[in-house]
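Model: Ready when you are.
Researcher: Fold this.
Model:
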Amino acid sequence: MPKGKVDPANIPNDGLTTRQRRMLPVTAVNTGDGKGKSTAAFGMALRAWNQGMSIGVFQFVKSAKWRVGEEAVFRKLGELHDETGVGGPVEWHKMGEGWSWSRTKGTEDDHARNALDGWHEVARRLHEETHDFYVLDEFTYPMSWGWVPVEKVAETLRNRPGTQHVVITGRRAPQEIIDVADLVTKMEKIKHPMDQGRKGQKGIEW
């Protein structure tokens, strides 16, 4: 849709001005079987960083030892902000040993507890308005696996204070989260190199 254009038939009767409505926080969900869910979320985070917003990234499935390209870039952007004031501050956390507030080593049996600990930390930060922009990467999985209560997540997102933006990625997004979201995109896979037995490549998968 062109910049600044809205469908006049869908303007809500909420008593808000156009400017006030434009400043409302956004909950976005990138789901589906296609590639690009996290990539799109980090693209949004890059825009937010450029606007001086504080960025908080929480990866709920990727190993704490897996160094993805986006992480390296955003850590550099965080350093650039700390040194020059350009952009916004950045925090990057990964489940398990990667959670900076919980350094205990985990096993397969601990994944559910680690995911729940991560969500509790995110909920605390939302309550305290710690960041302006949150990426909850692959967060749909611990919800769909029953590790994190979907109802609590939906309630927290619905009632969070301020203008904090939240982007959630992962396949099989629960309907409760889709219902509370403002922006939902479903990535559909048409073709993928891995279908032809090709492994992930540098610059494409990481």
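Researcher: Now this one.
Model:
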Amino acid sequence: MFSRDKVKYEPIDLPDHLDYSAAQSLEEARAFYERMKRRHTVRDYSSKPVSREVIEECIRTAGTAPSGANHQPWHFVAISAPTFKKKIREAAEEEERQFYDGGAGDEWLKALEPIGTNDNKPHLEEAAWLIVVFAQRWGHFEDGTRFKNYYVPESTGIACGFLLAALHHAGLVTLTHTPNPMKFLNKMFDRPDSEKPIMIVAVGHAAKDAKVPAVAKIKKPLDEILTVAD
């Protein structure tokens, strides 16, 4: 990224640019929408494997996301080992039991009813891969001096969006899982205290009999999510 003695502005010519016509831009935007609207959160996974190379390329894409001061405050841990996945499931389900036993509150549990979720999380073992996303709250220069990262939640959130889009583009299905607390993941994967695990992404191929909640197909229309001031 940068070192302590090289923190200065050095402009270069724009290396990459897609100079579409207005018609091409609209065509590309519509094509991307058509592809992305087919993305679904999936809880039923097949045993079909996913290569490490595919996961690496999708995470490489996530790493191109914009970030505060270009500090790129993220780290991804990709897990396919059954022993680790089992430990993550056990820890997550313990937390989920407390959540569904009343910790969430009646309003939140009522909101989740149409989704059909509960404290059983088999996908955390059945998915070919789990990707744990860590947000880096601070970093260190090569000499060990600590520096602050900026807009960490926003930056890692954008990177997660890139990751989900890349995985979908690769023909895979995903589920985002956010148990809390997740500090056990730092110890499990020897990550520093500067990093906070914020999300587990289950990744794989959908089972042939996979189901999704009907409510998941209901999206707000454009006029409810957009205001135009032109």
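Researcher: Key takeaway?
Model: The chain has a mean pLDDT of 94.
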